[in-house]
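tokens incoming
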């Protein structure tokens, strides 16, 4: 499995678990609790990916350019997290503070 696919799968698993199990049980429609749990989910993803690739010099293919692990993970996390949040917001009727 390529490193890019591994990072995408890790991010997908963490966010599906977060939005499918953790947020409905512990946050409901409270925007502040959802934000805190998103922060914790991102810390988990960046810690796992960073522990593997920090200092390795490994580059990742991102569209037409090569980036390091941090930028690849950030773009992938944002690309997966945004649709999850929008679905959750619509599903639970969340309004922004």
């Amino acid at each position: 499995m390529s490193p890019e696919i591994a990072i995408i799968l890790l991010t997908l698993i963490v966010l599906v678990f977060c939005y499918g199990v953790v947020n409905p049980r512990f946050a409901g429609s409270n925007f502040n609790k959802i934000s805190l749990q998103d922060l914790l989910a991102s810390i988990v993803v960046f810690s796992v990916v960073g522990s593997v690739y920090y200092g390795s010099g490994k580059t990742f293919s991102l569209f037409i350019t090569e980036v390091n692990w941090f930028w690849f993970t950030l773009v992938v996390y944002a690309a997966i997290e945004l649709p999850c949040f929008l679905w959750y917001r619509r599903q639970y009727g969340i309004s922004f503070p």
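note: The chain has a mean pLDDT of 93.
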